[in-house]
Amino acid sequence: MNEVGFDLAVAAASFxxxxxxxxxxxxxxxxxxxxxxxxxxxxxxxAMGAALASVIATSSGAAAxxxxxxxxxMRIGLFLCTATTIGAVGGAxxxxxxNSAILSLIFGTALLxxxxxxxxxxxxxxxxxxxxPVAVRLRLDDAMPTPTGPVPYHVQRVGWGYVVMVMxxxxxxxxGIGSGAFKVLGMDQIMRVPFRVTTTTSNFMIGVxxxxxxxxxxxxxxxxxxxxYPVALGVxxxxxxxxxxxxxxxxxxxxxxxxxxxxVIGIQMILRGLHVNLG
Amino acid sequence: MNDERFRxxxxxxxxxxxxxxxxxxxxxGIVYLSENADRRPGDHVFTGEPADLRHPVAIVRAAFxxxxxxxxxxxxxxxxxxxxxxxxxxxxxxxxxxxxxxxxISTVVFTVLVVSFFV
Lengths: 279, 119
What we know:
The structure holds two protein chains of two kinds. By secondary structure, chain A is an all-alpha fold.
């Protein structure tokens, strides 16, 4: 295959990854890296670099749309970004000292965890919770706009949420992913931020978190421009189309199908890390 | 500046920033493909990128000298400036509205992002 064919194939695969990512609510980053590694034989470090660049592109595009509607909570986002960015710097430095096999192993495990997290039922936190003194001092509480007027919410367990965000940051830097599923876990399950506020705020944070490790990726030589451009353009275009298709496609069925695929891919990444070749 | 106008400004910075970065990458990619159509694709083994594709100043310099892969890398740099600008604007916005706590928090995030370039 020559360069034109190869780049077009990579762009097409990235487009599909971005599309599926947007439809089932996962970032394109966690899907495209295993596709590049397992399907195209690309070294995991180059795949992670290209995926992280695409994560920044899609996050910035999506966050721009969400910011305007006033659902995302900027104060929660910025406060938690102090945790995710520091974690991401640590993760990116850690990626530099681990070998490819271990990275594959951790990546596969993170894929399985992500699939597990997105299976969870999302409870609507309509229950009125008491105010938490730490959240009050940081002014994290806000109200979510709804058709029937703003509904106030009280953020809980800020300390634990912060710890989960540090870990989400480490994973982002270590694997070149947005780690949106882990950010949502921290905000929604632990801090009890309403789900819609969580997902939109997480989108704002993903790009900022990724920016904290991409400088290190660049200097470590993970960003091969020849791979970055078909991946970033493909994922971005796919995510854009996915966001448009979201209201008209049966996402529940799609989610079930692709979660199975993600589990299979996760297991393959783990086997690759363990040097087991299934041919 | 009120919250509504501030959000809109941030949203526009993000959107146009991404479009600019994508346009630069696309131009670089097309030029690269037109000149390297028959090259055999690599990237199977990690060797790291050459120094002139790893340092911001070297990247920009080579891009202006007409190096196609450096032009793509300038697109990557533009992508990466986007969140940096986002956080800087937030810090400035909070400082202007007299919110000291969040001006400081935004500045901390901005500092981590800048420092990450130098570790």
